Amino acid sequence: MSLDQLIQQCKKNDATAQSQIYKLYASKLFSLCLKYSNSYVDAEDTLQDAFLTIFKKIEQYRHQGSFEGWMKRITINTALQKYRKEGVFDLVNENQIEDVSVEIDDDDIAIDFLLKIIQELPDRYRLVFNLYALDGYSHNDIAEMLNINVGTSKSNLARARMILKEKIENYHVNQRSQHS
Among 65, 118, 137, 159, which residue has the fewest nearby CB atoms (within 10 Å)? Predict the structure, then answer.
């Protein structure tokens, strides 16, 4: 069955088609959930909530742009909705700080380590970092999505980069001291 046929069947609440869509996209969307979650369990909850929303709103999918892209937007919004409810951004009104770039020598750092330190970032920094650096959203988009101002988005990104840079530098120092 083609993807278009699966989507049509999902619009009729066909459980078999929903199961097939889930099997096709769950792992990709789960990795997206992990980026925006504090833990594996939290990511699993977000994935389930996202699929519930996807199947509930599948009538709204108009075959414009990719179906996967449409599902990714729903998944990101599902993850962000939780943080909006928790008020992660309510008291944040930071002055913009100097922008920091993070140099990563891919050969020296394991991807698992990078994912781990990104997940360890405080929520407000991790969310902005992921949206901007990993998913390509602009500060204007992020401000709208998170209901914060553009300056707060820029500030949170800079703070996230500062924390990551410090952790990467500490990692390199520890690696050098282990090898000497």
Answer: 65
